[in-house]
Amino acid sequence: MKLTKNTAGRRVPDIVNGVAQTPYKGAGKFAPTGTKAAPPIRAAQDYPADGDKRVPSIKEALERAGLADGMTISSHHHFRNGDLLMVPVFDAAAQLGLKNLRWFPSAAFPCHEPIIKHMESGVISHIEGSLNGPLGRFASEGRMNGTAVLRSHGGRWQAVQDGEVHIDLALLAAPTADPFGNATGDRGPSACGLLGFGLVDSLYADRSIVVTDDLVPFPCVPWQIMGQNIDYVVEVDQVGDPSKIVSGSTRLTRSPDRLYIAELTAKFVRAAGIMRDGFSFQAGAGGTALAFAIYLREMMQEAGVKARFIRGGSTKYLVEMLEEGLTDFILDGQTFDLEGVRSMRENPGHIDTSPFTSYNWHGKGNFASMVDVVVLGATEVDLNFNANVVTHSDGVMLHGIGGWQNCLASACTILPIPSFRDRIPIIVDEVTTLCGPGELIDVVVTERGIAINPLREDLIQATRRSGLPIKPLAQIKAEVEALVGGPPQKPALADEVIGIVKWVDGTVLDSVFKIEAN
Amino acid sequence: MKLTKNTAGRRVPDIVNGVAQTPYKGAGKFAPTGTKAAPPIRAAQDYPADGDKRVPSIKEALERAGLADGMTISSHHHFRNGDLLMVPVFDAAAQLGLKNLRWFPSAAFPCHEPIIKHMESGVISHIEGSLNGPLGRFASEGRMNGTAVLRSHGGRWQAVQDGEVHIDLALLAAPTADPFGNATGDRGPSACGLLGFGLVDSLYADRSIVVTDDLVPFPCVPWQIMGQNIDYVVEVDQVGDPSKIVSGSTRLTRSPDRLYIAELTAKFVRAAGIMRDGFSFQAGAGGTALAFAIYLREMMQEAGVKARFIRGGSTKYLVEMLEEGLTDFILDGQTFDLEGVRSMRENPGHIDTSPFTSYNWHGKGNFASMVDVVVLGATEVDLNFNANVVTHSDGVMLHGIGGWQNCLASACTILPIPSFRDRIPIIVDEVTTLCGPGELIDVVVTERGIAINPLREDLIQATRRSGLPIKPLAQIKAEVEALVGGPPQKPALADEVIGIVKWVDGTVLDSVFKIEAN
Q1: B361 and A44 in contact by Cβ < 8 A?
Q2: Domains plus CATH for chain B?
Q3: Which of A132, A184, A202, A306 registers the highest number of CB atoms within 10 A of its CB?
Q4: Where does the pLDDT of residue A253 fall: very low under 50, low under 70, confident under 90, or very high at 90 and above?
Q5: What is the mean pLDDT of residues B489-500?
Q6: Rounded distance, CA A199 to CA B349, Å?
Q7: Nearest-Cα residue of chain A relative to residue B36
Q8: Are B441 and B408 in contact, with CB atoms under 8 Å apart?
Q9: What pTM was computed for the model?
Q10: According to the model, what pLDDT value does residue A254 have?
Q11: Nearest chain A Cα to B360, which residue?
Q12: Which residues of chain B lie closer than 8 angstroms to A356, CB-CB?
């Protein structure tokens, strides 16, 4: 694995898991060529005329789908930490004696820790997908056989669509489905809202299996996943635990500092003239972003301003705004709580989207760039506004990218972050891992003040007389370092690449390095 | 052009419009290989970040899309005889000096007669698509440069999906759209219901233009057509005249004979045990099929039977059944009247479908085969239950195939037809043009009696004691011939192929021959 410096000045490998890579060229600079991936042509005569594609068990479905050594299995993460499907799937694969599988989830969570044993035994070669928690640590310690490949939600669609990742078999957990394979996430005892993260899998995989705990007579309406793309349907007792969709990162913050940051962010949006009739915003699921939405809602009510659309992940706070008439639409990519699920089922203005509609950079545009302002988190930011979301200051890879990179296409990207966490400054000389180029990040809001990217002369002008505590990022950095006694320690990293961070166009933005053994 | 006999015994050409053809192999016998068509990869940086893809005129959109000599332009026919888009499009192409274009509509109607001049001048080389009325006659007379290629709705999807027809530029008439290109047919002053016939075009064409007379702010919801597949948006004064969606063939019959046939058909469905709780049916838009639905509704009410779904084309009669609770769903492919349009917009149980969901034979199944009984028209039937829908007894090609071939996948296919029209018998020794193989056609209902295909021993058994006038097809044929003075004259046809009839799998089922000059 040879490392070369890309346009962002980061060292990235030329070959990853046997596949040649293109180094990052700059935002919007890589011009793709060629054609999209082309799935095999199927014929209706090879499927049951009565539409009944049920098979008795996951194990039998894996066998009938022709699962073989070295193949790629994909799955979606709409249940987040409540997924109950993929551990049994890989247990069944192990029983079948399979080896060297690649798992291509849209994200893995702490609930997937039991899968580590299948990596250790060789059933799974490696995982390509967001690795949250224990699986991320496993990779960071250099214990995974292959290299982790971190992609944004849009980047995952792009990779499949462009043929960079070929899915042999998609496993699609479905809260409700019919025997033909039509499936939806918005109803049933395990309702998780929508299934957009599994849509590209259903479209491009050679074979697809829908697994459900709520089988209804044909037709299952809505059909977020279409039976015409499905080979087999399996019934199980429980496909997912929606109560575990809400995780620590999707709860409203109670920290006074973070509430202050959230309020400051909302005030900035108002002062910059972004909060006007017909505007749009997206706020991530982090606690501070949720609080931002609540402050913004109050300001919108006061000013009598109505949004045209809000981009989800949805929460009860966004649902309340929709139901109060503060927005015409929620365009939702994932529901973060059960109120989001209910609203998606009940409100005609609560629209389900997919990474194709929202984020895919290799389409004829997408929704992300039409959002007036997006509010996101970060683990680190540097003085050039470059930001990190996947590694912590100790270098351990603990988070996926989610839609974060895709959202940077917004007209205004704001990162409301505390200036330090556990006495470790967040504003650094150079981010441990580059996930978002500074040219796309417009504002950093901390409890010590607001820093505007010098590239955004328009925002600087618009907020000049706002009375908000606007100051250079370097000044905030200096203040924090004075307070905590200097810049943070660099993480102890080996010169061994254990993962890469893809940019939204499939090029390699940065490498993630192995952490040194303690 | 060499003609060889296919499995059905029909003479078909080996090459059509320069493309090698596969002769029909039998229903469900052709096994496709290879992969689906792969559209070019696009990049969001080449589209406006604010999502505004508007250009001032159709002509400018054609130029910006790079329309060039020899290219293929596609369009949908949801406005049927009320389309106002394609005549101006080809007028603009003529103004641009373009030559040798191929038009690939989902269907052409009498309103497109002005396009004949562009075929005569060489702007258009030929049309591939259903040719209703004057354009069909133009082709039948041998006056079109290329060969007509008639496909079913599902066959059109299959042809594009499988790469048999490459669309350079799709023109999509849209009753409502936003500047990003999201579009819907269910609302706006020109609402036509849905846009499913243009969906495959938007997915696979190199370039796509949405043309609308009702531009709304982003997002246009629902997005039956997704802006992520659209290059340009053009506003015009009027995109279509929905009052002309209803044509002669979609009005309820008043003929006592045909009403009797319709009633007999409904009685047969009841007697055969098909009309039971949770069943499904599809009735075409012909006057007799509409009357059948009305008789069936009465029988369902009497018996207290509720359908699970009815397949549209929708009409006010089906909408009434949905709103009366006689069915859970209408799964609709095209709205045949304005009540259908309203219902699609208002009723959660009125679901829009596309040829992919309903008909495409080269998917992992489709809806058509799950329909318990389908009631269709025909221009001719022979003693082997083979049927014709595209040519009349004089050999003139006047109709498209529509979804007719696709519907033959139903568990029970019934053709209610008069035994003669204008003193010309409909039951013949050999159909002029073979559109549907007899093995897939189960019952022929005429005013002289009901003939059941001998292959359907189950239906024969089920209706043995029904008291219905069941008799052999040959007997009905003999009765009619005795009445009108013998079998009909064979049409006067030259040995020159002016069109082909594709089967649902892309193979060539039959040829359409030039009519002899009078």
Answers
A1: yes
A2: 49-244 (3.40.1080.10), 248-491 (3.40.1080.10)
A3: A184
A4: confident
A5: 94
A6: 23
A7: A38
A8: yes
A9: 0.97
A10: 84
A11: A44
A12: 226, 228
